[in-house]
Structures are given as structure tokens and as C-alpha cells.
Design brief:
Radius of gyration: 29 Å
Organism: Marinomonas primoryensis
CATH architecture of the largest domain: 2-Layer Sandwich
Structural class: alpha+beta
InterPro entries: Bact_Chemotaxis_MeTrfase, PAC, PAS, PAS-assoc_C, PAS-like_dom_sf
Oligomer: single chain
Shape: elongated
Pfam families: PAS_9
Number of domains: 2
Number of strands: 10
Protein name: PAS/MCP_signal domain-containing methyl-accepting chemotaxis protein
CATH class of the largest domain: Alpha Beta
Number of helices: 10
CATH superfamily of the largest domain: PAS domain
Helix content: 25-40%
Amino acid sequence: MFFTRKDKNTNNEKPTVSENDVLVNAMSNFCATIYFLPDGTITDANPLFLSTVGYSLEELKGQHHSMLCPHEITSSEDYKKFWPKLASNQCQQGTFLRKKKDGADLWLEATYFPIKVDGDVVKIMKIASDITTAKQLADNQEAVYNAINRSNAMIEFQPDGTVITANDNFLSAMKFNSVKEIAGQHHRKFCKDQFYEAHPHFWAELAQGEFKTGQFERINKQGNTIWLEASYNPIFNHAGKVVKIIKVASDITDQWYGPTFVDIS
């Protein structure tokens, strides 16, 4: 590991600072940092880490890392192997669920570095970033997406109208057996010619960020008409560019044709 070398002070010269020392100091200044013995015992932590977890150094020093973890983590098979791997010089990195002093969830993007001296791991340095807010937002968005996906027909398009994928509800409504039948095809596949004659700029407008909602006449695999209550939703990337369109739909064919119409959903 790169933290083992120290520059020697000779001839009463002013001690020099190695690049390794500068690197460690920089990480400590800008990252939440904590140190452990190879068995997970806490030896030190910087103010950024302490403020993140809500403990003082006196409360942490000499305690085991497990005090910062929820029970479901410490009781897992992965955690039982966690410190033995670090002690055997295996770096660990990823997104980790931890807990603050008040018991609140804490999500950290972190790396655990084994530090070796004379070939032996003598301590572990961890640098971390608090990503709790971003993780919870992403989890909430995923939960909403999954809820919509379970109860609605969904299909995703490239901004030009090319099909990317579709869920089982959409395939069932349109009488397709597999997404392979429609992936790479254009949205025109589901429409009568009159739709694009009336809406020639449909995808250009979506690609510019305009969303579309309404009741749409479409054609299923068998050539039968199906009516969908749908919204076409542009999805933007970090730069504000539309990268895909997600359509969320419900089959309302029965509402158009009445109870004598054969249900094709």
C-alpha cells in the first residue's frame, strides 16, 4: 500500500513532506475519514466523519465498527467476511448502509484501504461520502416507477420513436408474446396512417421535451383496434437533453365499444 514510506530527516534539515503525506492530508481535509485496526476496532476519525455520524471521537475510539451498522448488516454472512478480507489486504468499496448515533439510516459511498507496513496490514483507512439524500431520492423514484410498472402498460422509446423495451402489461394489451417482436421497431407499427397524417411532428415535439396525454387509437398485433388512455413522458439527462420517452397507458377499449366488445387486454 502507498502509505508506508516516510522521508528521513538528515543533517538537521527541515523535515520534508512526502507526496503520500500530502495525499493523506488532502483526503482527510475533504473526505469523511476513519481509521481502524485490522479487526475493525476504531482508532481515529476526522471531524468530517464525526459530524456525519453524530458521534464524538471519545465515543467511537476503541469501539468496533459494528456499532455504526444496523443489525441486518452485522448479522449477514457478508459482514462476517468483511474484516477478515480487509485484514488479508483486500480493499472493499461500494455503497454501504450505516447508522447515525440517533439511529437514522446513513448511506455512504466509501472505500476501505488496507495499509501495510513491512508486508503486514497494520490498519485500515476508510474514506467516505454521505449520499443518504441522493440514495433515498433514487429509492423513492424506483419505488414509484415499480408501482406504475406493476399496474400500467409501459413502453420506452428512443426520442425518434424507436421502441427500446416494454413491460408485460403492454405486451399483453397489444397481443405480443415477447418484447423482441417490437424492440427496434418504430411507434408507427402501432398506429393507423391517419395518426401521423394528423400529427406529423409527434416525435419531434416529444424530443423537444413536450409531453403528450390523451386517448389514442392504436392497432394490436392482430390488426384490431385498441384504445389507450396514455401519457408520453420525455425523460431528461443531467444536461437537460431528452434521452428517451416513457409511455404509460391503460386499456380503455371497453369504454369505447361497450360491454359487447370482446376484451383484448
